[in-house]
Design a protein that fits this description.
148 residues, alpha+beta, Jelly Rolls, four-stranded antiparallel beta sheet, 40% helix
Length: 148
């Protein structure tokens, strides 16, 4: 039911806009999860050993909302949607634990997204309402090597 896979550094495991069908549990290494806006990476988070991603693909057939790319060599254990369905139907105790784990993960991600929305709402409001802040913000060079 679980399949071990290894990915090289800078390899995409999941790509934004494409449907997936597997959950990945990181055994070793690190990945970065990001979205792309106007050809710019917006990093959402980094994950390491014992973290997992791709859980939404076990539930629905929608395209991935973010890209997962390896930062280092990464070993994962993969569970496909059909493996998940077999495991869930194998017994109520394992089913309850799997669903609880998925619910906790999704709850955490929703909370983090809510915090990001709140932060960006505040930034947008400040940019719209405060002329001095807007001028300072637009004058700031985000591409400056000193700022990296």
């Amino acid at each position: 039911m679980l399949h071990e896979r290894t990915f090289r550094a800078q390899e995409k495991i999941i790509e934004e806009g494409f449907a997936g069908e597997s959950l990945f549990i990181i055994v070793s290494g690190r990945v970065q999860i990001y979205r792309t806006f106007d050809n710019e990476k917006f990093v959402l988070t980094e994950l390491g050993a014992y973290d997992f991603f791709g859980e939404m693909s076990l539930i629905d057939d929608f395209a991935a909302s973010a890209t997962v790319e390896t930062l280092t060599e990464v070993t994962v254990v993969e569970m496909t949607r059909s493996d998940f369905k077999s495991l869930v139907s194998s017994g109520p105790e394992i089913s309850a634990r799997l669903w609880e784990s998925l619910a906790r993960s999704l709850n955490s991600k929703i909370r983090n997204t809510g915090n990001l929305v709140k932060m960006y709402y505040g930034l947008n409001k400040a940019l719209c309402e405060d002329k001095e802040f807007r001028e300072l913000y637009t004058a700031w060079s985000f591409d400056s090597p000193q700022r990296r």
